[in-house]
Structure formats: structure tokens, C-alpha cells
Design goal:
The structure holds 2 protein chains of 2 kinds. Chain A folds into 2 domains: about 240 residues, P-loop containing nucleotide triphosphate hydrolases (Rossmann fold), CATH 3.40.50; about 250 residues, P-loop containing nucleotide triphosphate hydrolases (Rossmann fold), CATH 3.40.50. Chain A is about 35% helix and about 25% strand. Chain A is built from 19 helices and 22 strands. In chain A, the strands form 5 sheets. Chain A has a 6-stranded mixed β-sheet, with helices on both faces. Chain A has a 6-stranded mixed β-sheet with strand order 18-19-20-15-21-22, sandwiched between helices. In chain A, a hairpin with a 2-residue loop joins strand 4 and strand 5. The longest helix of chain A has 16 residues. Chain A is globular and about 70 Å long. Chain B is an all-alpha fold. Chain B has a single domain, classed as ABC transporter involved in vitamin B12 uptake, BtuC, CATH 1.10.3470. Chain B contains 14 helices and 2 strands, in the order αααααααββααααααα. In chain B, strand 1 and strand 2 form a beta hairpin. The chains are: A alpha/beta, B mainly alpha. Chains A and B meet through helix 11 and helix 12 of A and helix 9, helix 10 and helix 14 of B.
């Protein structure tokens, strides 16, 4: 693909990787020159993170080669990758937040003097690396006391301290403020001047445009194409990422919404107790909720559902005030929540498809409130397996062994069995493959048609723009704006999501 | 018959293999002991073995419910002590009405369980700590109140003592000890609770993943507390039966280590300390295995009987290792099958 004759620092040839039920990567190629910033783009589940984990030695590839300076290398583990000068900075930071900045930078390879840790050397050398990333903090400060943005810079300094030539950053700005993002960008541009190469993973197209010398796009685990700097623009990137007509992927027919199904008045959550939230949801409406990670969207859903009871305000379902102190009460009022983390909050992984499907409706189906209704559980399970097209060898299959998409369908099915009036979905398509995604979109559409009010939180702008009748945007615990379908644009959402309320 | 059985033990098929494995082990130890010392299979010894297994089985079933929630109860032995010493002390030494004392013997342990449950669910204290403190407190209280004096019924309460010492004659010279009947009733009741009621399903679900259970609308705090109440309640009942059987209880060592026997039996019987799995029949067989092992040391390896703990420890460790290896083999086979299907 690349006819470039200048020397490649890193080259990836024909990488393939499979997980149970998913072909994550298929014959993927990638090139990176010294001092180049490469933006690696793709939808969730496109394989970006998997590819980077392979490069960083977190996971082995099933097939393919990795070349450094034209020489094939084998990366057997994280230490191996570091020895080769490849460092991965995770989406979630991996630091000992109880230790100092300097201690973190030299964690595991502390310079020693007479068998004791040489604190003076750590201090001096840390200071040098911190300067390189433009971070002006005392190396003795405890990492946990720094903002997330600054912690990220510490991670980069740590990578530099092992002479990393290739820095991989996985969605580094997902939890950063605008200002912190700018600092990070300055640091990255500085690194480029020093000859350090950066692979920058993001789904924020604006960032790719600002930073990248080249864009490479993955789609469904395969190379979708590259863009040289001159051709990097919004449309060209979206076209490569989606590879299909978006309007068809998100098949929405807008119908007239019915009566108000959910009304939220002056609601205050325990996480942001000073902010009052107000909005409503009509039957048959699909409302998207956008915002950056940490904007308080998940916390809002948890409060609506009674997981973390509110500290003030009122919630009405179908006009009836409910004060959910527990999910039980919210469920009785006709609500359902498909939580963000399906393995942690959605599923009993060691139990069967059937036991999971029946879990929420056990009490309702029980003839006397004590004994289980086996027959009904079986009926519900069969119905849901058919309706949701869950791919499972049998209803007895332990949920752990299903693919992500089918697991998510089990979580949704558990709730559909309760015939909710208000369905709350938190990142409903995170980490599932494109086919299952489309099926879940179709299901949302069908449910809305049948009169269910749907509120869904998503960090994928495409998804929010494709599926919402209306979009609410949150920033630091507040709803900063509401956008109609006509007003929707990536820019408008990002402005509101970063707290800029005037622009929209 | 098969469906009745499987309904009682539930659909945990891997648990079933475990139960089968430990049953085979029980048979092996049983036969070896019988061969070395034929007195082992004598009516007197067998009756005793069944009686002890029944009493310890009640403790095991109780702690199994707690272990299924992912918790632990270290205070069982001290609850046995509290009830076992307290009942004869109040009736014989203090002259209380036996009926009031019997009611207290059931109610107080349940209140103890309730306090464990509330401390664990509401204050979010760790079960290990809460029940470790319980272990110290209940024994300390018993010894303090009674001044460390041995308590017993003497020749009183013969009628009541029958529920522990009595037996249902089967043929001349051998009868089923009545505690076995009590154990069977409890086992069936708890088995039905665990596998046929929604609350049993809740318990298994929250033991696997408390967070997901909560998100499914299950009142997990209430269910966990219930498990501790049942556990301590059964410990109280067992304590009563123990003292009715032995007619003698010393505050300083009555019920010592019983919590460990109960936990060991539950683990041998297939309860994972991670929570979420366990069968009642497994716990009973696990209890029987421990009792037979002890009996074996006393009857077949007379010179080594002081090494009893070492043998029991080694058997449990061996069982758990074998189980872990078997599980890994199954997981590998599963993964290979999966690869094949997809490839």
C-alpha cells in the first residue's frame, strides 16, 4: 500500500487475532515513520485497542509479523515491548496513585545506592522527564493528588524514561478537560520534534485532524484505508470509518411521541449534589444522552434506577411520583436499566442464559411469591432468544461463554420480559460487533414503535446522531443543552459536552 | 425419581460431578477402615457415626448458605458453646423454665445472625472480621456468665434428650439415630429453598455477582442477612442437640473448632468460597467424609490418632487441588471445542 521509500520505524504485516466468537483482527497492516504522529481511527470494536495491545505485548497475535527498523521482532510481553522502545499508555491509567510522581516514573527499576532506593537520583531524573512533557510539578508530589490530565502526562514522562521510540496512546483525551487536552497536544507536538513516534487512537475526528501526520482507519478488524495529511478532513475520515451509508445503518423512522413517560424535576444525584437536573421523556421517544466520560450520565441513570438514591428532586413515571430508594422500586414503577458494564452489573456470568433471562421477572412470575415458575421462565427464555436472535447452543449455556453481543442481548431480554415503560440503556453497544450493534438498534426502534420511552447514554457520537429523536448533552453533572434532530452535529455536541453552552 | 432428585439439588451440573467425586472418596475411606478394623461397621459405631454426622451436617448446611453468598461464618463453634452451655446452665443451675430456655436457644442465635447480617450489609464490614469477633465474644460471654463451670442436665429432661439420643429401631441392635431424621428434614427444606424458590435463586445469583443481582432488582442486603440468620439459627439448634446428646458441656472447649469442621465440609461438598455455588447433598457427604476420617484415625490407625488434623487437612487440600485441576481441564476442553466450532 505504501510506496513511501523513506525508512519505516515500525511496520506491522498481516496481523490476525481471534477471540471466542469474534474475529478481532484480520490481515492488518500498519506503518510508522520516526517522528510521525499516526492517528488510528475506527468505531468501537473495530480492533484498534486489540492491535495496540499486540504491539505493546499485552496480548500475542495469532498471525502476522512486527518489524522494527526493518528487522522482524517478536514481542512476547510488556517488558519485551518496552525493551524495543514501544510503550502503551492505557485508556485507564495504571499508576500507583498512593506513591509519588518520581516513584511512579521509576516503578520497578528504581536506581539504588547501597541497597537502598536512591531518592535523589529519582528526583533529578524525574524532573528532567517531566519537563520534556511540559509538566511543572514536584516529583515528590503524590500522583493521586494530580488531575487525570496531569497523571496522563506523568505516564508519558514514564514512557520517555525508558527511551520509548513509539508511544501508543489509547483515547488519551476521553476524560480530559479542554485545557488539559491542549497541554497534552503541546506535549505530543514536542515529542514529535524530538523524533518520538506516536500512535494516537481516538474517535474524535477533530483531534486527529489537529495532530496527525497521517490517518489510518480500521473497520471491523481490517484495514479500511489511509489518509495522508492533505486529505485529512471530517468527511473522508467518516467515510472510511463507517464504510456504509450511515442513514441505512441507523434505520430510524420518526414517529409521533405519545404521553410523557418519564419526568425528572430538580433531580440531584449524590455525585453532583449541587446540580439540579430537569428533563422529560415521552412514550415512543428515543432520547440520546451525550457527554464526555465522567460527565455524570451513568450516575444520573443509576439515580433514576434507585441504585444510588437521589438527594433531592422528583421523578415521575407515567405521571406518578416515585421515590426509588432501590432498583426494586424503580422496576415496580416500570423502569429498566441495561447497565454500562454488562459483565459486572448486567449478568450473572456463571449462570445459564435461562437463569439470567428470568432473573428480573422471577418474583412477578412466581405464583405465590415464594416458588419459582419453571414453565414461565422457560417460555420467557425461548421467546427472548427468538425475538432477540440470541446465538446460543441452548438455554442452558453458561452466559460467560457467549460473545459480547449475545451477552448484551441476554441483559436486554431480561428486561424486556418485564415489559418496561421506560428503558434506560447505558452504552448499549459498547464492545460488541457491528452486526449485533445493528440488531440492537433495530430492537430500540421496534421498542420505541411499541411505545417504550428510551433514554440511552452513548459516548459514540455517530450512534447518538443516528439513533436519537432528541439529544441531551451533559457536562460535569449538568445538562448543558438539548438538541433536536435538525440541530444535531458533532460540533454542537462537543461544544455542549465541553461546557460551552453559548455555541449551540 | 431422577427429576425429584435433580429438582432438589438444582441444575448445577458441575456441582453434581463434584458430589459424585467426594462420594467415591467417602466410600473408599469407609471400606478401607472397615477392612482394617471390622468393629468399624458394628452397629454401635455406625449409630454413633450417623449421629455425629447429622449434628455436624446441620452446622455445615447453615454455613453453606453463608458461603454461597460469598461470605463466611467463623462464629459457629462459639454459638454452639453459647447454646450448649447456656441451656443446661439456665435450666439446671438457674432454675429457669425449660420452655423459655428452649425458645431463647433458638431466638438468640437468630438475633446473633441478624446482627452479623446487618453489620455486613449495612455497615459493609467484612464477614471474616464480624464473625471472628463473634467467635471471641460468644465464647467469652459464656465463660464469663457460667464462671467456666461445666453444665449438664444430670438426670433431668430425659424426654427432651431423646431427640438427640433416641433412635428409631430398624432391626434388632440397630436403629436410625433421631438426629438423622432432623438432618434430613432440614436438608430437604433448605434444598427446596435453595433450588425451588426465587429466594434461593437470588442467593445463588448474588453469590456469583452481587452487583448484577442488585441491578436486577434483588434486595441483596436482605438476602445476605437472611443467610446469616439461618446459619446462626441452625448453629443454635445444633448446639442444643449436641448438649442434649452429651449431657455435659464445658464452656472452655464446647464447640471448639466446629466452625472449621463445618466450613471444611461445605468446601469439600462443592461450595466455592468465592460464592455462588454449592449443593446441600454435597455438604452432607462432605460432613460424613470428615466424620469417617476422624473415626478411621481412632479405629484403624490407633497410634496416629493425634495426627487427625493433619490427615483431615491433607484430604481437604487434596480434594480442592483435584477439583481445581479438573475444572481447568474442563475449561481447556471447552475452549478447544469453541475454537473448532468457529474455525
Amino acid at each position: 500500500m505504501s510506496s513511501d521509500t523513506s525508512k519505516q520505524l515500525l511496520e506491522v504485516r498481516g496481523i490476525g487475532k481471534s477471540f471466542p466468537g469474534v474475529r478481532a483482527l484480520n490481515n492488518v497492516n500498519l506503518q510508522l515513520k520516526g517522528g510521525e504522529v499516526l492517528a488510528l481511527l475506527g468505531e468501537n470494536g473495530a480492533g484498534k485497542s486489540t492491535l495496540m495491545k499486540i504491539l505493546a505485548g499485552v496480548q500475542p497475535a495469532d498471525e502476522g509479523h512486527i518489524l522494527l527498523d526493518g528487522e522482524p521482532v517478536e514481542i512476547k510481553g510488556v517488558q519485551d515491548a518496552l525493551d524495543h522502545g514501544i510503550a502503551l499508555i492505557h485508556q485507564e491509567l495504571n499508576m500507583a496513585t498512593n506513591l509519588s510522581v518520581g516513584a511512579n516514573i521509576f516503578l520497578g527499576r528504581e536506581p539504588q545506592k547501597r541497597g537502598l532506593i536512591d531518592e535523589a537520583t529519582i528526583y533529578e531524573r524525574s524532573k528532567r522527564y517531566l519537563e520534556m512533557v511540559g509538566l511543572n510539578v514536584d516529583p515528590n508530589i503524590i500522583v493521586g493528588d494530580l488531575t487525570i490530565g496531569r497523571q496522563q502526562l506523568v505516564e508519558i514522562a514514564k514512557a520517555l524514561s525508558v527511551d520509548a521510540r513509539v508511544l501508543i496512546m489509547d483515547e488519551p483525551t476521553s476524560s480530559l478537560s479542554q485545557k488539559e487536552t491542549e497541554t497534552l497536544f503541546t506535549a505530543i507536538k514536542d515529542l514529535r520534534k524530538r523524533g518520538v513516534s506516536v500512535i494516537y487512537i481516538s474517535h474524535r475526528l477533530g483531534e486527529a485532524k489537529e495532530l496527525a501526520d497521517r490517518v489510518s482507519v480500521l473497520r471491523d478488524g481490517e484495514n479500511a484505508g489511509d489518509l495522508p495529511k492533505e486529505e485529512i478532513n471530517h468527511d473522508s475520515m467518516v467515510k472510511l470509518m463507517v464504510g456504509r451509508d450511515i442513514s441505512q445503518f441507523y434505520s430510524r423512522t420518526i414517529h409521533k411521541p405519545g404521553e410523557v413517560a418519564l419526568e425528572v424535576k430538580n433531580l440531584r444525584t449524590p455525585v453532583h449534589p449541587t446540580h439540579e437536573l430537569n428533563f422529560s421523556l415521552r412514550a415512543g421517544e428515543i432520547v440520546g444522552m451525550a457527554g464526555l466520560v465522567g460527565a455524570g450520565r451513568t450516575e444520573l441513570l443509576a439515580t433514576l434506577f434507585g441504585v444510588t438514591p437521589n438527594v433531592g428532586g422528583e421523578v415521575l413515571v407515567s405521571g406518578k411520583s416515585i421515590d426509588a430508594q432501590s432498583p426494586e422500586e424503580a422496576i415496580n414503577a416500570g423502569m429498566a436499566l441495561v447497565p454500562e458494564d454488562r459483565k459486572l452489573q448486567g449478568l450473572i456470568l456463571e449462570m445459564s442464559v435461562r437463569a439470567n433471562m428470568g432473573l428480573a421477572s422471577l418474583k412477578r412470575e412466581s405464583p405465590n411469591g415464594i416458588f419459582m415458575n419453571d414453565e414461565r421462565e422457560g417460555e420467557i427464555t425461548q421467546l427472548m432468544i427468538q425475538q432477540m436472535r440470541v446465538k446460543t447452543p441452548s438455554e442452558k449455556q453458561v452466559v460467560r461463554y457467549l460473545s459480547g453481543g449475545n451477552q448484551q442481548k441476554v441483559v436486554i431480554g431480561k428486561w424486556l420480559a418485564m415489559e418496561p415503560r421506560v428503558l434506560l440503556l447505558d452504552e448499549p453497544t459498547r464492545g460488541i460487533d457491528v452486526g449485533a450493534k445493528q440488531e440492537i438498534y433495530g430492537l430500540m426502534e421496534d421498542l420505541a414503535k411499541s411505545g417504550v420511552a428510551i433514554l440511552f447514554v452513548s459516548s459514540e457520537l455517530e450512534e447518538v446522531m443516528g439513533m436519537s429523536d432528541r439529544t441531551l448533552v451533559m457536562h460535569e453533572g449538568q445538562i448543558t443543552g438539548e438538541l433536536t434532530r435538525e440541530q444535531l452535529s458533532e460540533e454542537a455536541i462537543m461544544q455542549l459536552a465541553t461546557g460551552n453552552t453559548e455555541a449551540a | 425419581m431422577k427429576t425429584f432428585f435433580s429438582k432438589l439439588i438444582g441444575s448445577q451440573s458441575e456441582g453434581m460431578k463434584r458430589v459424585l467425586g467426594i462420594f467415591v472418596l467417602l466410600m473408599v475411606v469407609y471400606i478401607i477402615t472397615a477392612i482394617i478394623n471390622p468393629n468399624f461397621v458394628g452397629a454401635y459405631n455406625q449409630e454413633n457415626l450417623i449421629r455425629r454426622t447429622s449434628l455436624f451436617g446441620i452446622l455445615g448446611i447453615g454455613v453453606a448458605l453463608v458461603i454461597i453468598t460469598g461470605g463466611i461464618d467463623l462464629s459457629l463453634g462459639s454459638v454452639v458453646c453459647l447454646v450448649g452451655v447456656g441451656v443446661p446452665w439456665l435450666i439446671t443451675d438457674q432454675g429457669w423454665s425449660p420452655w423459655i430456655v428452649l425458645i431463647l436457644a433458638i431466638v438468640i442465635p437468630m438475633l446473633i445472625g441478624l446482627s452479623h447480617g446487618l453489620l455486613i450489609t449495612k455497615l459493609r464490614l467484612q464477614p471474616f472480621i464480624v464473625t471472628l469477633c463473634g467467635l471471641l465474644i460468644y465464647r467469652g460471654v459464656t465463660r464469663g456468665f457460667t464462671g467456666d463451670q461445666t453444665a449438664g442436665f444430670g438426670t433431668d429432661l430425659k424426654g427432651l434428650r431423646w431427640i438427640a439420643t433416641g433412635e428409631i429401631p430398624l432391626f434388632p441392635g440397630f436403629g436410625i439415630p433421631f438426629p438423622a431424621v432432623i438432618l434430613i428434614v432440614i436438608a430437604i427444606a433448605v434444598g427446596i429453598f435453595l433450588n425451588r424458590t426465587i429466594y434461593g435463586r437470588y442467593l445463588l445469583a448474588l453469590g456469583n455477582n452481587e452487583e448484577a443481582a442488585k441491578f436486577s432488582g434483588i434486595n441483596t442486603d436482605r438476602m445476605i442477612t437472611l443467610a446469616y440468620v439461618i446459619c446462626s439459627g441452625l448453629a443454635g439448634l445444633a448446639g442444643l442437640l449436641f448438649v442434649l446428646d452429651l449431657n455435659l458441656a464445658q464452656p472452655v472447649d464446647f464447640g471448639n473448632f466446629y466452625e472449621l469442621y463445618a466450613i471444611a465440609a461445605a468446601v469439600l461438598g462443592g461450595c466455592s468460597l468465592r460464592g455462588g455455588s454449592g449443593t446441600i447433598i454435597g455438604v452432607i457427604i462432605g460432613t460424613a467424609l470428615l466424620r469417617v476420617l476422624r473415626n478411621m484415625m481412632n479405629m484403624a490407625f490407633l497410634g496416629f490418632q493425634r495426627a487427625e488434623f493433619a490427615v483431615i487437612g491433607a484430604v481437604i487440600l487434596g480434594g480442592v487441588i483435584a477439583d481445581e485441576l479438573a475444572k481447568r481441564a474442563v475449561a481447556r476442553k471447552r475452549a478447544a471445542q469453541k475454537q473448532k466450532q468457529e474455525g
